[in-house]
Design a protein that fits this description.
This protein is mostly beta strands. Helix content is 15%, strand content 48%.
């Protein structure tokens, strides 16, 4: 009987990714929810995701590899700013805010280049 258990566990493990909610983009970005807005700039892009009650944002480098200063900020209207800034090779974030029935704004920066969304998801 223990042999059967050892054979079944890998099969069940292969099904777990299939059970994830459709339309989510968690693996590539670290954010759950559907992609809501992507803003490109010369060194990368700012990606904003929206689920029912939350918004999430990341800044992703166009050419990952070398460490450089990257940041991402996200704010729901009437709420505090949530940010992540540091020296990264690929991505800053994710940062998440409660955004049920609220507009949000996000900014992303890589080096001296930056971009902002203004108020979105209203």
């Amino acid at each position: 009987m223990p042999l059967v258990g050892l054979l079944v566990l890998p099969l069940l493990g292969g099904l777990v990714p299939l059970l994830a909610a459709p339309g989510t983009a968690q693996a590539a970005s670290g954010c759950s929810g559907r992609p809501a807005k992507t803003v490109e700039f010369s060194t990368g892009e700012l990606r904003v995701y929206k689920s029912r009650a939350h918004a999430c944002a990341v800044t992703v480098a166009k050419k990952p590899g070398k460490r450089r200063t990257m940041s991402v900020t996200l704010q729901a209207r009437g709420g505090r700013v949530v940010s992540d800034k540091g020296s990264y090779t690929k991505m800053a974030g994710p940062v998440t805010v409660n955004a049920l029935n609220r507009c949000v704004r996000a900014t992303g920066a890589i080096g001296k280049k930056s971009v902002s969304t203004g108020w979105i998801l209203c």
